[in-house]
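Bench log. Compound arrived from synthesis this morning; before running ITC I wanted a structural hypothesis for how zinc ion sits in the protein. Inputs:
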Amino acid sequence: MGLALRLRLAWLFFCLGLAMQICAGAAAQDSKPAQTAAPLRAPDERYKVDILLVVAHPDDEGAATAYLARAMDEGKRVAVVYGTRGSSGSNEVGAEQAAALGAIREIEARRALSQLGIAEVWFLDGKDTASQNVLQSLSNWNHGETLQQLVRLMRLTRPEVVLTFLPGTFIGEDHGDHQASGVLATEAFDLSGDPVAFPEQLAGATKRLEPLLDNLRPWQPKKLYYFADADKEDIFKGLGPAYSVKELSKANKHAYWRIALDGYLAHETQSRAMAESLKGMSDAALEKLMTTEGYWSDSLRFVRGKSLVGGSATGDVFENVSGEPIAFSRPEVGPEPQKPDFSVELGGPWSFYADFRRAHGLTHLPHPEPPEIALQVATTLVIPLWVRNQTSSPREISLTAELPSGWTVQSGAGKFSIAAKQTAAARLEVSLPASIDGTKKNEPQEITVHAESGGRSIGDVKLRVELRKRALPQ
Ligand SMILES: [Zn+2]
């Protein structure tokens, strides 16, 4: 027998043997007793968490880390979602800017969280938006796509509790991106348990390696807590639990403020100058500084947004949380407020938030009245207005502004006409003075827009404006 023939025969016997083995295997499977049930695929337990923190930028988690460290001491599992990679922040370390800085800050965030023991971290591809206007941030973040991904992550991580920025606008840093993370987290809280919201995420795979359907299940988180991006905390007091940041962590024996500070310092592009300024300070001096208002204050306070499992507003975050799934709960939508047929009202983020609170069952959330904003000297204040004419005839209105001395109307005052059944956007622009009047420092100034038609008032719009040397653009 030639070598070639022997090799061919050997190959033939090998293949025959293989085929017989496969047949035998199939026969053995066919003859398995029917009572041995094969388990259907279950959700991946490695990604189930107790707390999902949703914030805007790498380093924003610092608003909650003093609490997260405490919750993790108690065995709670935590995941974090960032809206952006912080690509328009400062860089105190190197020359990198823009998307390159975003790539650095993503790593800094992962390092900061891994110090705490948090490995589950996601980024939502939103773009940094330097303004106080949440609507600009939502637009720049591709609101719909970002929400879809956050709902997906909520269904994947199945949090009991969601922590996020309070969706509202206040005198403070008032970053539109911070607000956007709170808006999205609230929307996702209300949608992730809804079987008709993004149903493609809930469909079972129709064939092996199906690349389109997520095969997730709806998930209703139980509680939603907020922290505010505002300077003054008085309007939030008593609306949620408070946790001391001076207590020592059982796990690593450091005070919770210290754990939060160490996490923040891992964001070196944002904190190198601060780290330098803290060098050489005694522990006591450091604690005194870090537990003041500008830093972590003496305790970390939350505002309870929602609880679907009862409990008291100021009770522990995990009060009444059992770990058992609960049924989907559609938010209770408040009644539409009665409005006159012909009216002028403040628009922009202010009217959005009034509608948002009503639509998400959050009418108990604090908000300043009259509305307020802090702006930089020598910039322009824009007052967005809705002019609504629900009557059956066209109307004429005239807008005038009552301003502090030194403030001047740039545009938008005067006479306008509005068609029957029309709702139109208008805006009044005011030039702000170049310096802050010494006696009125840090005192918000009240401004009023009067709207008149045919010699009769159809409403006043009020806004309190605080001038600052530096503030985010409106
Ligand atoms: Zn931020």
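What the model suggests: Residues 12-30 have pLDDT under 50 and may be disordered. Residues 56-57, 60, 175, 178 surround zinc ion (CB under 6 Å).
ITC booked for Thursday regardless.
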